[in-house]
Amino acid sequence: AGIAGVDVSAIETILLWNSQVHRVPVNAQGPLGNGLSALLLGRSSITLQGIFALPGVIDADYTGRIYAMIWTLSPPVSIQEGSRIAQLVPFKANVPCKVNQQRGNAGFGSMGLEAQIMWSMEINKTKPSISVELQNAKNRPEKIKLQALVDTGADVTVLS
Question: Which keywords label this protein (predicted)?
Fold first, then answer.
């Protein structure tokens, strides 16, 4: 018997100025020890205040600062430094590794595929087209605007 999770607190004051998800650093860092992974879950007390911590998984081989993903429906909301906003619920993972790859301190999708962009659009009687602006700060031109006809039967669209 005992507690199921360990509370974690915000290590800085954060203003949630819109209803987007914000990364809030907490007073925990990986690895958690003893080969443990953890679920990062919101505390019920912040949910009652209209602040939501989105659930996340902290892998046993993660070595960086842990962040809670926080959002609110009623901005602006201030989360004060030291506020207990989430809890880590440890568990022993029993999933076999397919590759021998260490995560290190990279998080939020670091083990996934390269970035992918998915467009959605309203279907109507006109030809399906999309206006796109691509930005690249390292090369010229920095911005390029494209107007493209979308092939609704294609799996992949290539821009060059």
Answer: Aspartyl protease, Hydrolase, Protease
Among residues 7, 59, 61, 151, the one annotated as catalytic is: 151
The answer to whether residue 151 is catalytic is yes
Q: How many domains are there within the chain?
A: 1
Domain-located, residue 127: no
How do 22-29 and 84-91 pair as beta strands? Answer: unpaired
The CATH number of the domain holding residue 60 is: 2.70.40.10
Residue 76 lies in a domain: yes
In a domain, 138, yes or no: no
